[in-house]
Amino acid sequence: MTNLYKKDSPFKVYISFKKYLDVLEHIRYNDRLEYRVNYAESLIDRTRNFKEIKEGFQDISLLEKHEDLIRLLLADLFPTGLTKNEIKAASIPLSNITFNYTERFKNILKDAGKDFEIELRNINDNEFYVFCCCLILQSYFKKDIKSTIPLYYDIPNKQGIMKHYKITVNSDFTEIYPTEHAKIPSEDIMDMLLENLDDFKLWKKYFPSQSWVLKGFTIISLVDCTSEVALSDLKSSMIEIDPEDLNPNENLTEIFKSYFDVAELNFGLMTFNKKEQKLDKLPIYESLLTNHILDFWINTFDEEIRKNTFDNLSHNSKPIVVSNVDNLDANVKQLPSFSILKNNNINSFMVIPIMKDNELLAIMEFTSPVAGSFNGLKLKKLEFFTDMILFSLSRFYFEKNYQIEAIIQREYTSIHDSVVWKFRNEAEKYFTASLGKKMYTLKQISFKNLTPLFGVSDIRSSSEKRFNLMLQDLNQQIDWLNEILTLTNSDSEKFMLALDVFENELNNEIKADTEQRFQRLLREEIHPFLQGKLEVKSSREVKSKIKNYFLQVLSQTDLFYNHRKKLDDSITLVNRKLADMLDENQVKAQDIFPHYYERFKSDGVEHNLYIGSTIAPDLHYTSKVIHKLRYWQLKTICKMELDFQIFKKDLPIQLDIASLIFVYNEKIDIRFRMDEKRFDVDGAYNSYYEIIKKRLDKAHIKNSAERITAPGKITIVYFGMENQKEYLDYISKLQKKGILQHDVEFLKVEDLQGITGLLALRVSISQDQSIK
């Protein structure tokens, strides 16, 4: 049995004219007009000897065999007076097999060529199957659903322009009914299916292939909607921008041919670079676009002429439309631009500037070798998608910036705003090269002759606290285990002995590997033993204690973590609070002068500032900038200390911080390290600054066991008396504001490895917590 569909479907399909013959029977016995009765009776008599016409058939050769009879039979449905106007035919339901065409439809198919095969547009096999199932629900089960898939034929004309026709279907002369193999779904199942339109396999489960009969014929009518479809395609191609793959629609020129009804059409587009006052080609379109006129503007005019041209376009943004270049004025024909037109066989063209908020974004050109291809009416059609052009260009610029940012993030790191401009310049070169499928090696990013500022607010004695809390956690864990093991039978004695050894070691002679060996004992022996007790018959008390024990255990380490968690939570809260305050105040510091800023969180928060003219080359830079930022830094750290005194009372574990500022007068260079994705000082000489910073952390006062930093105090480390005088001025200002106390200490820093002569000022923070 032949399947009349190319695609799988739930239908067995039969061509039948039974329902239309039923209409004729009704006319024969009920119509009051005698000529109508005689007409119907005559048609019925003519078909009496062809049972398959009524009963249904699948042999499509019968359509040709009975062509004259079918044309006569359907004459009322295909009036002769409309045959040259209407695009209409009979059809096998939902198939590409059509017959009984109007004259206009025949001519359209003739122009398409002998090899052209008519097919439905943009409907895949799964969508088609579900669509057929929906017809069953709608026709047989009377479900109130609307089939929303629009049906189109794409048929080329004589010139090769693709024309688009929307199909309307009259299915009055079809019927649908189940075979003996059909499944009759319940109401709940039908509702469930309609909620899962994309689940092709689910639909096929309840409507198996060829389990229903579709018998009859349909009448299809076509409406030429080429402009509407082309416009829709243009909008889609402009909207569908993939950020990961900025590729153009390769059919764009073909779509324009359909939209303007111009068979020989070339399309060009260039964006306008406002910064450099020039047109830029789009590398992704380079192989698809034809920029005859725009290329001439780029390559022929000198810079002054181009600038004047773009200034004029910005003030007078009217498009240029020339229907026939032969009709141009004689003076125009003497210009170099006219020879460009003739040399490139351009006899009709449009040049359209694309404007937004009175600014030039891009220029489009449409050219054709056929005179008369473009005129005012064609230009008018552009108005229907002007907004889409603007949207598409805006999206392109957005995606371009997005990709540049992505390159910066991927190839560098999260870059501070003050230096991002240099990364952007490099990333833009990389992006432009990649669009043109060219190789580009990212250059090194560095800034020279910068003055550094360093500060740290360090959480005091965090390592010692962590060690003591670790001992509390492990001792508590041993106590829990001893309590549980005491309740179990004698096979736990060896574990209790091992725990005694570890308890003694923890509290008397702890070793470097004590914690690791304890973890190994737990992981390999004690915990499997306890898990086994949960799986065998044990008392309710034992199982309850074991379950509660494992609730206290951190799964990653097999250790208790209660006390250390409080410390880690406290450190996290302190770091977050201090970092947030620093970041918030850093915004104000950028207003003084843009500079590179970075901070790090560990057991406390440290920050670096790098200031210099190379970071903001367009701004005026003087030594006053450094003084303002040094004062800002000291004032900010004082505020951080004051705020800490307030919120430290709410910490799970009480902590103290000690703050330090290091003053360094020598200029240094910083370079972005690609391997670490961060800036670092550049060169051996500059590394001296980093060495000092690291060694100040635990430095003592000279000839003393006391650290130079102390909780509740600010320590300022420097080299010369000039810095001392500068910071005493800053301290005096903050003392007058009640932020610092009048207890300035003048200290010498102990000699560090390779570092001598460091001095320090130390001053206490005010105890008045209302001061901000």
What is the structure about, briefly put?
The chain is of the alpha+beta class and 772 residues long.
Blueprint of the fold:
Elements: E1 11-15, H1 18-30, H2 34-47, H3 51-55, H4 61-65, H5 67-73, E2 87-91, E3 98-99, H6 103-112, H7 125-139, E4 152-156, E5 162-170, E6 174-178, H8 187-194, H9 200-206, E7 212-216, E8 218-224, H10 226-239, H11 252-260, E9 266-273, E10 278-280, H12 292-299, H13 303-315, E11 320-322, H14 330-333, H15 336-343, E12 348-356, E13 359-368, H16 376-382, H17 386-411, H18 420-435, E14 446-459, H19 462-487, H20 493-507, H21 514-535, H22 540-552, E15 553-554, E16 559-560, H23 562-592, E17 596-602, E18 604-611, H24 623-647, E19 657-663, E20 668-673, E21 678-681, H25 687-696, E22 713-718, H26 721-736, E23 745-748, E24 759-764
Helix pairs in contact: 1-2, 10-11, 10-17, 17-18, 19-20, 19-22, 19-23, 20-21, 21-22, 23-24, 24-26
Number of helices, counting only DSSP H or I runs of 4 residues or more? 26
End-to-end distance, in Å?
A: 91 Å
Amount of helix:
40-55%
Total strands: 24
Q: Number of folding domains?
A: 4
Q: What portion of the residues fall into strands of 2 or more residues?
A: 15-25%
Fold and architecture overview:
Residues about 240-245 have low confidence and may be disordered. The protein has 26 helices and 24 strands. The relative contact order is 0.06. The termini are far apart. Strands 14, 17, 18, 19, 20, 21, 22, 23 and 24 form a nine-stranded mixed sheet that branches. It has four domains: about 10-225, no CATH class; about 245-405, Beta-Lactamase; about 460-560; about 565-765, no CATH class. This is GAF domain-containing protein. It comes from Chryseobacterium flavum.
